[in-house]
Design brief:
The chain has a five-stranded mixed barrel. It has a two-stranded antiparallel sheet with strand order 6-7. It starts with 13 loop residues before the first helix and ends in an 18-residue tail after the last strand. A hairpin with a 2-residue loop joins strand 2 and strand 3. 10% of the residues lie in helices and 35% in strands. The protein has one domain: Nucleic acid-binding proteins (OB fold (Dihydrolipoamide Acetyltransferase, E2P), Beta Barrel).
């Protein structure tokens, strides 16, 4: 018996669902983690690793256009394959960003669609409030 996952438990609201309905033959997924170009996702069919499609890579303008942890994406689930293919990133309701690594002045999205951020730091006077 196949187990069905309720994506509402993973934050798929009606606003996101209206975006999902625009893409036929693709499944909505949420990014759980990112590991060296691979993304762990969850869909109503289950959890799986996913990678970005070549078409998506070609169309991307910058690092901030790539999927981020917490973001919703549309995937080709491919039930017989080892990994799903990420085709589109849905619009984000919020994002936590930083400067991308290296010399470029690009923005990198660390997390998306978050409601609360908790920042913890040491209290040894070795911090900068600016």
């Amino acid at each position: 018996m196949k187990k069905y996952i309720d994506m509402k438990q993973y934050g798929l609201t009606e606003d996101f669902q209206s975006e999902v309905n625009k893409y036929k033959n693709l499944s909505a997924a949420r990014i759980l983690s990112q590991e060296k170009g691979l993304y762990r996702i969850v869909t109503s069919q289950g959890k799986k690793l996913a990678e970005i499609s070549g078409k998506f890579q070609f169309k991307t303008a910058g690092v901030s256009d790539y999927p981020a942890v917490g973001g919703f994406v549309m995937v080709n689930w491919n039930p017989s394959g080892n990994s799903a293919i990420i085709e589109y990133v849905l619009p984000r309701k919020s994002s936590f960003t930083r400067k991308a690594a290296g010399d470029t002045q690009q923005e990198q999205v660390a997390a998306a669609n978050i409601d609360t951020v908790f920042i913890c730091m040491a209290l040894n006077n070795d911090f900068n409030l600016l």
